[in-house]
Fold this sequence. Notes:
The complex is a heterodimer. Chain A is mainly α. Chain A is about 70% helix and about 0% strand. In chain A, helix 4 crosses helix 7 (about 155-160) and helix 6 crosses helix 8. The model of chain A has no long low-confidence stretch (mean pLDDT about 85). By secondary structure, chain B is mostly helical. Chain B has helices at about 1-15, 30-40, 50-95. The longest helix of chain B has about 45 residues, at about 50-95. Chain B is elongated, with a radius of gyration of 38 Å.
Amino acid sequence: MLNDRELIKAILGGNEAAFKTLYTIYKDMVYNTALSILQQQIEAEDISQDVFIEIHKSIGKFRHNSSLKTWIYRITITKCYDYLKRQKTKKRFAQLTSLFNSENKLVYDKPHFEHPGVTLENKEHASVLFLAISKLPIKQQTAFTLSKIEHLSYKEIAEIMNTTTSSVESLIFRATRNLRVTLSEYYKNE
Amino acid sequence: MGTLNNKLIDETVNSIHSIQRAEMSPFLFNKIINRIKAGIPEPIYYTGAWFLRIAVTGVVIISLNAITIWSVTKQPQKQVNEQMELHKIAQEYFGNDNVTSYFY
């Protein structure tokens, strides 16, 4: 088994098998992170492709200041943020041009998300939870997702998000509080 | 009602612990390799900054056009004014209205 440095050296030497090894190690991590943040399966696959292409393109620039895992997480999150920004612009554009369909609904409304890794008995609850998560500010959403779904430590999250452990703690605390408020509103209206 | 709501909220929040890893398409690696080999660049996405740049460029082009049109349409008036000024000077110095005759 190659370590990170050997793996990177082999990839830089044009070894496709080494790149496949890296892909096998990190594919689930990249895809599940993108899936939790974007809440859309096809888009998460597209972003995962972009992430691995970016890794292949930029691996020579990796300076070992952090672990390879942290670096890949950062690329994934950056790509997800960029995607969400584009979606926001599209939504704003749709609002500006009044792109309404016949039922007077916005064309770019987010579709209902069902995480493929959720067990049948939890499907309904998880679906409501993801809806509430999607309403959180992006930083709270990222910290919450990395902690509760990716099971990363506060220290790891802080490294990925380029912030302090106490900031991560605060982000997760606020995320949980906001989620409870959103869910309470949701069940009150049900 | 409040207790029922709290129970529902707890169940919903705790449902996050039941989430298992999802798997992506097994063909994705081949797609990635094909894209790398083909050297297909990532699509250029037009974000808010791009729209702003396009809008600013548009405003600059329209302003330049407006300034050009304004200066061109203003020209005949200016020429007439210059002509009148010359006549005035000619009148004042030579007492002759036809200033062009002094230039030839």
